Amino acid sequence: MTRIPAAEITGLYGTLIKKFSAKMFGKVPESLGVMWHNPAVLKASMGMGQKLQKWDSCDESLKSYAHMAVASLIGCTWCLDFNYFMAHNRGLDLDKAQQIPRWRDSGVFTPLERDVLEYAEAMSTTPVTVTDELAARLLEQLGPAAMVELTSVIGYANLTTRGNVALGIESEGFSDSCGLKPLAEPAGRR
């Protein structure tokens, strides 16, 4: 249950958002109603999300896995569910996406993917725990443009995951709608 009840989504902009959501997800997520209390914030967040989807210096799967690693660490079930659903829709490796919550114990990830997942978690802790060695390895493997992009995607993931958790926004079953197997349980939460 969300900490702020969903508002009725109205007006022209609201109609557009509802149509887009229904087409993309088969329903209008409750989380949109929560955010509708401040349409300017919702519009800015959605706009940023759409803009970062257009960035192409960093591999899409690495960015997706990084966002899911942040969501798993922070505990945002909405973001994990949504990003798993989006990984399916984008044709990414679902076996890997499914293992994100327990990536440290899973053998499916490449060394680069492990570095990306470690970086996502290190950026998401307080204080930030990114080491010079990890940053250097990623810079060498990705190059500066992709590293800046990945870092920005992880920063955005922290904004959305932390906001969702604070507002009590939880999974809405996106991945269930396409018959995906459940996400792995995080290693520390069994």
CATH architectural arrangement of the largest domain: Up-down Bundle
Q: Indicate the structural class.
A: mainly alpha
Portion of residues in beta strands equals under 5%
CATH domain fold name of the largest domain? AhpD-like
CATH class of the largest domain: Mainly Alpha
User: How widely separated are the two ends?
Assistant: 23 Å
General shape: globular
Helix content: 55-70%
What would you report as the Rg, rounded to the nearest angstrom?
17 Å
Short note summarizing the structure:
With 190 residues, this protein is mainly alpha-helical. The chain is built from nine helices and no strands.
Q: Features of this protein?
A:
190 residues; mainly alpha; AhpD-like; 0% strand; globular
Topology record:
Layout: H1 11-25, H2 30-35, H3 39-54, H4 60-74, H5 77-89, H6 94-99, H7 111-124, H8 132-142, H9 144-167
